[in-house]
Each structure stands twice: as C-alpha cells, then as structure tokens.
Amino acid sequence: MEPQHFATAILAAGKGTRLKSKRAKVLHSIAGKPLLQHVLDAVLSVTRPDQVFVVVGHQAEEVERAVGATGVHFVLQMQQLGTGHAVQCLRDSVSGLGDLLVLSGDVPLIRPETIEQLGNFHQAQQAAMTILTARPENPFGYGRVVRVSPTSPEVAAIVEQKALAADQQYIGEINSGIYVFRIDALYRHIDSLQANNAHGEYYLTDMAAILRAAGERVVAFEIGDATEVLGANTIAEMMDLDAAMRMQSARRLMAEGVTIHRPETCVIDAAVTVGADTILEPFVQLLGNTRIGEDCRIRSYSVIQDSTIGSGVLIHNGCVLDGATISDGAFIGPFAHLRPGSQIGREAHVGNFVEIKNARVGDKSKANHLTYLGDAAIGSGCNIGAGVITCNYDGVNKHPTKIGDRVFVGSNSTLVAPVALEDDSYIAAASCITEPVPAGALALGRSRQTVKSGWVKQRRAAQQRKKDG
C-alpha cells in the first residue's frame, strides 16, 4: 500500500440506536479505548493522518474531542442518510487521490496487516471496487458475496439474507462492509445510488452492482479470521468484542513471557505492556497506559491504571494504583491506595491501608500501616509509623510536608503542613508537629499525661448513688 496515494474514510456518524444508549456508538469503549480509536490505531499504522477522513454526524463534537489529537480530518455528515451518503460527503475531500478505503468506526478488531493486504490486493487487481469478505461460523443475517466462479476473485453480486435464492443459501462468504474503491470510478457512478429501501438510506453496498453494470471490475478479498470484521449492534455484542480483545491482550503478554493465572478473570487494556517473568494472579485489572517491568508479581484484586511499575515489584492483594510510579524492588500493599502523583522509590515499602497522593517516598523508606501522605516529599531510609497523617489541606489551599533522609516518625503523629523534618530527626509517637524540626533532633508535641488514682472506683460509686436516687 502506498500511503501517498491511498486515502481512508472511517464512517463514524451514526447513532447506534440499537445500543439503547445516549452516547454515539463509536464512543463506547472496549479494552480501554473507544471503538473509533481502535479503528484509527489500525489505520494510522499503515497510512498518514493527513490521508484519513473521519465522517462525523451524531455527537460530532464529542467524537472529534475523543480522537482529535491524532491529526486526522473530520468531515461532517449533517443528515445521516446511510453509508453511501456518508461517502458522497467526502467527494471534495478526496478528489484527485487514487484509492479510498472505506470502513466503519465500530470494527475494533481489524488489524493493520489486513488493511495493508486488502489495499495491495485491490491495486494488484486493478479493480474499481474490492470487497473485504470473511466466512464466519454462522453467516445468517449477513449479505452474501456471489463470485463469478468459485475460483475467481470477481464478484457477480452481493445478495442480502432475505433475498437469497434456494441455491444461494449454502454460500458462507459474507460482505464485511469494508471496501476499497478507485476514487475516479466511485464518484463517476455514486450518484446512481437509490434510497428505495425501508429506511430511505443510500447504501454503499449497492455500488457493487452499479459498478459492475457499468463494466467496472469488482473483486473480493477473503480474510481467514472472521472475528476481525465483527461489529456490535447491542451492548451484549460489544462486551463479546471486549472479552475477545482482552483475551488477545492476555495471549500477547503470555507469548512475551508473562504468566497469567486464570486469564479469563483478568481485565487487561489493549495498550498495557508487561515485562517477561512477571506474574499476574486472578482478577487483576491493568488499565489505560500501564507499564509493568520484569519479575513483578501482581496479586489478586489489584487495580492498576495509567501507572508505571519497575522490575521486581510486589503488589499485594487489593491495591488501587492510579497515575503512580513505582521503582524497582518496591513492596506495595495489601490494600494500599496510590493516587495520581505518587512516586515510590527503590525497595520502598507502602503497606496495608496506606494512602498516598502527590507524594514522593524515597528509596528504602517505609510506611507500613494506616497512613495518609499527601503533598509530601519523603527522603530515603525513613520510617513512617502507623496512623501518621500529613495535614496538607487547610480548607482552601494545599501545603507541602518535607521529610529528610533517615527520619523516624512515631505512630499516630500529625504533621501540620507546611512543615519540614530535617535529616535524622525523630518524632515521638502521638505528636502534633506544627513547627520545623532540626536535623538530629527529637520533637515531642503532646500534652503531659495525668494519672488519677482511684478515679474509677469513685466514678462507679457516684453512678450507683444516682441510680439509687
């Protein structure tokens, strides 16, 4: 395929009414990305953005925002009058180019290799129209491709399910709805499309008969895996595609040396990468642009999104990571919550029920229990005791806490920001720290304990007298 002569049209204007959803069909997500983004990713692997045209209509602004950063062109279809009408709207945009690939924005499993093979076949056949076909297990409901002869690439007709003759019922080759056209032939004849159907729409499928009647060459290119061209007309069908794509991701990772126990229970987005010899236990979720290194173990029920994890990291059960960065050899959890901006150093420990937000924990530092660290910078070799809280918010503004190297913060201490604890300082347990602590100093911020002997006996006696009246 020669990208400089090959344009692509992605049809993304429809509502998808059968989904029973307020959102445009192509904005529904599977495997962590909108349907349209999956198609775009495949297309952009084999052609340049300036040769890609996305036809938008329903919720056009939302669709453009969802994929606008890719640099493709958007063409507005004001009225959604069918696939043929959508391609008519492209006439001025693609004029002068050689060939046009047309596909729907809801075929997320299409592979770049298939697109390239289809384009090469079309150009080698010197065809006016090439139809991508497949043979699913059950072709019922699809239009069937009738070839001139079983061994010929030429197409005699596309026959819809309800119009199949008795001797055509056996045909298993279906029309995928993905086509390549020679642009001059397409627009020379596209105005012959008629909207004489129940929906009053112009169907691009009818171009096969129109071009053939005009003496143009119409051919078919069959792919081996019919799942590539599957779309979704219901939420249930969409979730079937989601499951298929996530299983593809799991199999890709396992082929690269990742062990995944019970892969059917894991939720792995398409963009996730994982290094060799990492182990994923059942019911793990890896979402967004998560990157995981080698020799890690991610234990069950952990949810990791848009995070970067180094090598040799152990994520215990039930952790939630979002926008976090974990360095090599760190230990996280169980039940830790690392919010955006969390940076965990090499061999650091973040233990059970610890929450971290916009904070850096230095190499070999530990916060093992029941702690909140927000808007903080913590040095290396520190020990943050159970129940420590950085009080970073005054009701209006956030304030930073700075903790140097080798600092010991005793359990149940409260650090009222802005505050700084210098290197090698000690904070006594249950202290409320409001002022800077110098290097090597011990800080105590708690009231003196008072013991009243015999108080319990006296209190019980008073309660009994009150009861007796």
What does this protein look like?
This protein has 469 residues and is an alpha/beta fold. It folds into two domains: 227 residues, Alpha-Beta Complex (Spore Coat Polysaccharide Biosynthesis Protein SpsA, Chain A); 209 residues, 3 Solenoid (UDP N-Acetylglucosamine Acyltransferase, domain 1), CATH 2.160.10.10. Helix content is 19%, strand content 28%. The chain has nine helices and 41 strands. Strands 12-15-18-21-24-27-30-33-36-39-41 form an eleven-stranded parallel β-sheet, with helices on one face. A hairpin with a 2-residue loop joins strand 2 and strand 3. It is elongated and about 105 Å long. The model has no long low-confidence stretch (mean pLDDT 94).
Topology:
Layout: E1 6-12, E2 29-30, E3 33-34, H1 35-44, E4 52-56, H2 60-67, E5 73-76, H3 83-88, H4 91-94, E6 99-104, H5 112-125, E7 129-134, E8 144-147, E9 155-159, E10 174-182, H6 183-189, H7 207-213, E11 218-222, H8 235-255, E12 259-260, E13 267-268, E14 273-274, E15 279-280, E16 285-287, E17 291-292, E18 297-298, E19 303-305, E20 308-309, E21 314-315, E22 320-322, E23 325-326, E24 331-332, E25 337-338, E26 343-344, E27 349-352, E28 355-357, E29 360-361, E30 366-369, E31 372-374, E32 376-378, E33 383-384, E34 389-391, E35 401-403, E36 408-409, E37 414-416, E38 419-421, E39 426-427, E40 432-433, E41 442-443, H9 455-468
Parallel strand pairs: 1-4, 1-6, 4-5, 7-11, 12-15, 13-16, 14-17, 15-18, 16-19, 17-20, 18-21, 19-22, 20-23, 21-24, 22-25, 23-26, 24-27, 25-28, 26-29, 27-30, 28-31, 29-32, 30-33, 32-35, 33-36, 34-37, 35-38, 36-39, 37-40, 39-41
Antiparallel strand pairs: 2-3, 6-10, 7-10, 8-9
